[in-house]
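Example record

One chain of 291 residues, shown exactly as stored in the release files.
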Amino acid sequence: MAAGVVSLSGTPTQNQTLAANVTDVDGIPAGAPIAYQWQQSTNNGVTWTDIAGAATGSLSLQQAYVGRLVRAVVSYTDAAGNAEQDFSPATASVGNVNDVGIATIAGTPVQGQTLTAGVTDLDGLANVAITYRWQQLINGNWSNIANATAATYTLQAAQVGRQVRVRVTYTDQLGGTESNRTSSATPSIVAINPAGNDVGIVSLSGAPTQNQVLAVNVTDVDGLPSGTPIGYQWQQSSDGGVTWSDESHPPLDARTQVAIDRNASLLHAVGGFDGLFTAPLRTEHRRAAGH
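Predicted structure tokens for this chain:
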């Protein structure tokens, strides 16, 4: 009995297809059934295991076979009635083709929310160092967001109305260089409230003592354009802040300051178009010696 010969055609590289070919000097009857089983080895051919579902005359080489040896096992009955089980030579180690890494963004595109960059790569990311660069779209051009180089980014007021994306750079486990793989852009970032307005902050400076002057200060992360008109109304409370009434006498500065008189026990200011309130200040009344 002469053994059959199994040979392989094709290139042992990821995404390529191998085909098993059988010849037998005893002949193979026309239409005779031939069974195929592809095998792989992870230890340079010392041991072999069947590849699940790989039971046809060809095998498409996927990422899972990279770095492994592959062979085909063929079973049939030749024209002389001999049962044959023949093995092809093993391939060389299946070569890798660099798989493009994919960057994604998870999170809600709303001011104050945190976005998280994700990276997937079929070539592996175990113990891989990844650099991140968050960008925003301004007037049709993508520009880097200052200091946004971590895997996460918390959306600020500056991004409201703009789209955001992330770019990642790294070298994968199989040595493939992935440079500036870019995520899809988010929708336009929405303000933290439906009106698209960040609440301003009104604070008071000065000593809450009779005959002293308090000044009101306004800050707003959305910005205060130069010359923006700001309306002020000082109020006082005589019952510990339960109720408030407008301060009617003219302050030292009609816009930003008020002089404390002997009748107020709590003072605060209402400022801006948002109707923002300062924290109240408890006033102290002191008489000079001899009065």
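Notes: Residues 5-87 form a domain with the Immunoglobulin-like fold (CATH 2.60.40.2700).
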